[in-house]
Amino acid sequence: MNSKEIxxxxxxxxxxxxxxxxxxxxxxxxxxxxxxxxxxxxMIQVARLEWVKFExxxxxxxxxxxxxxxxxxxxxxxxxxxxxxDEDHKRVDYLSDIKRAIAAGFQSVMVDGSRLPFEANVxxxxxxxxxxxxxxxxxxxxxxxxxxxxxxxxxxxxxEIFEKKMGFTAVEEAVRFIRDSRCDWLSVxxxxxxxxxxxxxxxxxxxxxxxxxERIEQLEKALGIPLVLHGGSGxxxxxxxxxxxxxxxKINVGTEIRQAYEFALREKNDIEYAREKLYLRCxxxxxxxxxxxxxxxxxxx
Length: 301
Known about the structure:
- Helix content is about 45%, strand content about 15%.
- It is an alpha/beta fold.
- Strands 1-2-3-4-5-6-7-8 form an 8-stranded parallel beta barrel, surrounded by 9 helices.
- Helix 4 (about 60-70) packs parallel to helix 5 and helix 5 packs parallel to helix 6 (about 120-135).
- The radius of gyration is 17 Å and the shape is globular.
- The N and C termini lie close together (about 10 Å).
- Mean pLDDT is about 90; it is low at about 150-155 and about 195-200.
């Protein structure tokens, strides 16, 4: 399975590839089985904060767990957010993480330079693209400020942020960014919200978000590459469907499945019980929220 070709085909046919975040290693098995049983195609992914602040352990640990339970024809392994500047505003050795992921067998990678000035983001993304393309895999980048995590936007009401398009990806900047950075997919800020990682917010339901569908359409028309939506949990379903039609070809889901696993584990302190709850929730998301059941028959032809 070729990640770049599958995401490209999703864009061309109005489909989307879900990408499920794994902050706890035992989640891999349940998510992979749910994807296969729904005859879907999805990515299993890990972000740097999930091995630093949760229990994904390491890039290599996730890869090892993934290859135990991977479902050929259904699952792909993706490296999510590797920031240049992290949530605590510290510099990250991002190229080292990218190279480790490639060596471990990841099939696509993401560098997040969105906390940098525009030109520095281009430079960091270009450096990653050079390394990844030499290995034959695609690169995802981010332009704009997706709300959430520990950002300064948290003190501003969501409706005000959406109305004023604060931090939203600008079309003209995106055109320059794609041209100069050589990234293959672009994560765009169009109204979604990242899951919070502060201790007092981990168990809270995310605010219901919406999407600027017109901005997505403008970006897709101008760029002609797959767009990625981070913070897929908590968005009104009608907006999700419209966003996919407008050009979103990959969508990240983290909070919904993390909470399903963590809540079940607290309920019984039994990993297999938590896996079962996660498996059922993941199937619900694929079938009823993202409507990607059966997509393997389309995306793998």
